[in-house]
Amino acid sequence: MRRRPADFRRPVRRRFPNVIWWALLGIAVLLFIVILSKDGQIESRPAIAKRSYKHDRIIEGLNITDEMLSANSVTRQISDQISLAKAFVVIAKESNNLHFAWELSAQIHNSQVLLSSAATRRTPLMTSESETVIRDMALLLYQAQQFHYDSATIIMRLKAKIQALEEQMGSVTEKSSKYGQIAAEEVPKSLYCLGVRLTSKWFGNLTLQRKLNERKQISTKLKDNSLYHFCVFSDNILATSVVVNSTALNSKNPVRVVFHLVTDEINYEAMKAWFSMNEFQGVTIDVQKFEDFKWLNASYVPVLKQLQDSETQSYYFSGNNDGNRTPIKFRNPKYLSMLNHLRFYIPEVFPALKKVVFLDDDVVVQRDLSGLFSIDLNGNVNGAVETCMETFHRYHKYLNYSHPLIREHFDPDACGWAFGMNVFDLVEWRKINVTGIYHHWQERNVDRTLWKLGTLPPGLLTFHGLTEPLDPSWHVLGLGYTNVNPQLIEKGAVLHFNGNSKPWLKIGIEKYKPLWEKYVDFSLPLLQQCNFH
């Protein structure tokens, strides 16, 4: 046979010597032995390493013993039975199965006594001594399951109980709100007594009437625009007195202060008698009743026109609850009171004045307010403290933005402000005809679809774009419904008890009452006779 050429010959296989093969095999055996020895060392380590650090930290914070962690712990078994039995006791009582509830409670007591004795002697419970207790409890728990007191039933009953409690809480909250609103609206007997006694004094004491006539000789002050003019519209004699007294006592120059008070016909004589009998640091005080304003009639004032509407009268005065769709606070007739809406007619009430500070009757003055009259309102009509530090004091809180008139004309996040202490430029007011703007919006809210209650919503619409923000220290709000920062109270010029908890009511916030009461002289005979204290 002919041999292949050299290029096509198969390569010659090289063979390792047998010595090398034996060496490699020996190395592999040694490595296997080393690995086995390490595994043995790991398994021989103490068992305490099996417990994690996390579990140790949990156990340290609980009253758990090693005996309770044991898989065969009698103590843990009894404790679990007690926990389950306590749940069954509650369910049994709700099901009116009082005898079974008593049996469970008695067995729980026996189990607790056994655990207590074991803890006292500091030795684990033995199966022999606890067998009877465990068996008796197990029988009762089995019996509970036969009564359908299983876990699913417990969960369903607890859910039903929670729902019932939530409904009960809602009902109690609603009643509390209603009663609180009623308490805030009612006139205290002491205030009613004061009004009656003052009216009697006025008609029975000619000296008081002569005294008031003498004071009218200084009526030129009532029109002097170089003085500091304040106005209060109220039927609350004592509250108005606190406003005047606190302003006078904290004024640097009280003889330059003029108070214009407007009340209703019922309280007119009583108000005149009170301010004729008492001196207020030389402050000039004038009392009027809004029934004397000839221009205040239904043809000019939308609120008076609405009062003549039968639907409006039914809404506010008939007591029909319209299925509780409208909260009780929205149905308060005071929101249609002319004393409440008179703030939109200040230029008509005081035609000779150019600038006036409006004060609510639930405020207390702590500082001299003369600086308000030198504030530049930059062509605006209303100087007020803004209340938009929180979202619920913006326009959307007070107005119905589902209505196109509101949605198209006003930003829902626009900053709100507060009535209660306002500086009004009456010259600009008359020039812009702000009262006409108020009439425009009031007439469009006959059906109460733009806003529900009060004078602040129409005020926000009327003075929109016409309000100059004031320093917040001029007007501190919230003392009639919430906690207020003590530093704000200390620095505040005017403290406002807005809310239901007025300081002259029993439901007033106790810690804020002294701020108001220090301006009331409770030693006056009339106040003592009417049980003011």
Automatic annotation (TrEMBL):
Bilayer topology annotation: Single-pass type II membrane protein
Top-level taxonomy: Eukaryota, Viridiplantae, Streptophyta, Embryophyta, Tracheophyta
Short name of any one Pfam family annotated for the protein: Glyco_transf_8
GO MF term list: polygalacturonate 4-alpha-galacturonosyltransferase activity
Biological processes per GO annotation: cell wall organization; pectin biosynthetic process
EC number(s) given by UniProt: 2.4.1.-
Entry keywords, A to Z: Cell wall biogenesis/degradation, Glycosyltransferase, Golgi apparatus, Membrane, Transferase, Transmembrane, Transmembrane helix
Protein family according to the UniProt entry: Belongs to the glycosyltransferase 8 family.
Name of the molecule in the record: Hexosyltransferase
Major localisation: Golgi
TM segment ranges: 20-37
UniProt source species: Tripterygium wilfordii
Annotated localization: Golgi apparatus membrane
Cited InterPro entries: GAUT, Glyco_trans_8, Nucleotide-diphossugar_trans
